[in-house]
Design brief:
Layout (H helix, E strand, L loop, with lengths): L3 H7 L5 E4 L5 H13 L3 E5 L12 H14 L1 E2 L5 E7 L2 E8 L8 E4 L2 E8 L2 E4 L2 H12 L9 H12 L3 E2 H7 L4 H13 L3 E6 L2 E6 L2
Parallel strand pairs: 1-2
Antiparallel strand pairs: 2-5, 3-6, 4-5, 6-7, 7-8, 9-11, 10-11
Length: 207
């Protein structure tokens, strides 16, 4: 478990997020969900984005976090918390493990969205990612031999590293749904990887 000095030195990243308080409940919910749908992470309450400590009332903020996980997260997110102290200022650390049966959804009014954590950002999961989770929950076993259609998509990605989904749809002469399904299987079999960003997604071979 990291000490406070290490947390501040690392700053915000894929596994850490800083909030001054819990006023922005929607963004906190999205961050908790993104951690759950990725590799887990730590949310620190009582810090500015630059790491400057402002301090909070940990009991009040923990109650707010509990409310957020119940009302905005489906299913409810389980977490561990602890209070950190630097001189007279208190912080609240919320540790979120990765959820086993992904995805966890953001539910608020008419919204029903899924987020994952990439670098410092919470990004909406695309249909490929959603179907990867579904496929893994059903049957993610890699076959002894790839089908011809699988080989076609894989060879295109090998020849065109960092291929976008649009490029794959445009250049592979299969129906879009077929291409997407093959991509899902290749990801589940740990043959290719998908990198999400605010600009979209790219596919490449796993070395």
């Amino acid at each position: 478990m990291k000490i406070l000095s290490e947390i501040l030195l690392d700053g915000e990243n894929q596994y850490q997020a800083f909030f001054e308080n819990t006023n922005d409940q929607e963004e906190i919910a999205k961050t908790l969900i993104a951690f759950s749908n990725s590799e887990g992470g730590v949310l620190l309450v009582g810090l500015k984005k630059n790491g400057k400590i402002t301090g909070i009332n940990p009991e009040f903020e923990n109650e707010c976090i509990s409310h957020i996980t119940k009302e905005c997260c489906s299913p409810k997110i389980e977490y561990n918390s602890r209070v950190l102290q630097l001189e007279y200022r208190l912080l609240l650390e919320i540790c979120v493990p990765p959820y086993n049966s992904k995805p966890v959804r953001f539910i608020n009014n008419s919204k029903n969205e899924i987020y994952i954590r990439t670098k410092k950002s919470n990004l909406k999961a695309n249909k490929i990612q959603e179907n990867v989770w579904k496929y893994k929950n059903i049957n993610g076993l890699r076959p002894n031999q790839l089908l011809n259609d699988d080989e076609v998509v894989l060879n295109f990605i090998i020849s065109n590293p960092k291929s976008s989904l649009t490029k794959l749809h445009k250049n592979i002469e299969y129906p879009i749904d077929t291409v997407d399904y093959i991509l899902v299987r290749l990801i589940c079999w740990d043959i290719i990887q998908m990198e999400l960003s605010e600009l979209g997604c790219e596919f490449s071979l796993i070395n």
